Amino acid sequence: MTQRVSKKLVHKYYKEWIELYKKGAVRHSTYLKYELAYQHLKRLCPNLHMNELNRKRYQLLLNEYAKDHVRETTMDFHHHLKAAFVDAYEDGLIKQDPTRKAIIKGKPKVDKKKKFLDLFELKALMQQLDLPKDQVNWDWFVYLISKTGLRFAEALALTPNDFDFKGKQIVVNKSWNYKFGGGFQPTKNESSNRKVIVDPSLLKNFKRLLKGLDPNAPIFVKDNQKIFNSTINSRLNTLCKRAGISPITIHGLRHTHASLLLFSGVSILSVSKRLGHASTLTTQKTYLHIIQELENKDNNKVLKHLKELEN
Fold it and tell me: What is the mean pLDDT of residues 82-87?
């Protein structure tokens, strides 16, 4: 193998690699994860050159990243870097594969926040919302996701034109790039482009709120402001405390929406389409605990029916 060791900065090599091999070849949401790995790489080793990259330097890099992340997240970071550096080794740009036998570390896992609310808890939360009649705020955002199950970035990207009042639905065909400077971007996958049926109360409220707004501008993002999901989660945490329920995240409201639909008897296929999942397998995997609980209830119904046949 010809040795032509590169002295290029590591983060610059990685940036060029993801643009060459990943851009347009993976889903947009996946590509953003490579972009995020690049940002971390640039932050952690801004002056590291390729000819200095070896197993020790790579392990130090992983260890530094692991200080602020759990092991699973560090493993993802490693996987997003590994292919690029293996390519560099095979192309003769570095003398050894720095990722070989890498040790994955990370912070201890903390107890996960509650993933979803039951119907009683959701009603208690909704009663705490401050919903002005003449302008949108983050409480209206919480209200919207609770009733639609939209993803965080999908809800941020909604414009007045996305509300089909005649069809009684919301059209989802884009998301908001809140992690990298704002602006519209494609949805997570093709299945995420969908129409979500909504109730008359939501339509009535938003028809009033949207009057006079730019039909093509995002409702919740003003003047291209920087949005952090931690900001909304902080507000949601305050609302949960007031309601006397366990804290939940904004993504947990999406889980709540789906869970309540499943418990009420809505089919997995319908829930999957409403959430914009790529397949029902995603829905089944995410809500396996609920599906198993429903299956147990169905089994009890079957046994009860069979018993009645003997009477």
Answer: 96
| Mean pLDDT of the residues in the chain | 90
Q: Is the pTM of this model over 0.70?
A: no
Amino acid identity, residue 15? K
Closest residue by Cα to residue 115 from 298, 288, 264: 288
- Angle subtended at Cα 71 by Cα 255 and Cα 19, rounded to the nearest 5 degrees: 80
User: How confident is the model over 90-104, as a mean pLDDT?
Assistant: 94
pLDDT in tens, 266-293: 999 999 999 999 888 888 888 887 777 7
Sort strands 194-197 and 169-172 into parallel, antiparallel or unpaired.
antiparallel
Residue 74: count of CB within 10 angstroms of its CB: 22
| Partners of 185 in beta bridges | 175
Between CA 44 and CA 77 the distance in angstroms is 12
Domains of the chain are 10-90 (1.10.150.130), 119-292 (1.10.443.10)
**Residue 280, amino acid:** T
C-beta of residue 257 within 8 angstroms of C-beta of residue 286:
no
Of 252, 254, 285, nearest to 268 by C-alpha is: 285
E strand segments, 98-221: 163-164, 169-172, 175-176, 184-185, 194-197
pLDDT tens-digit readout, 174-212 = 999 998 888 999 998 899 999 999 999 999 999 999 999
Q: Can you read off the two tokens belonging to residue 146?
A: 């609770």
CA distance 134 to 127: 19
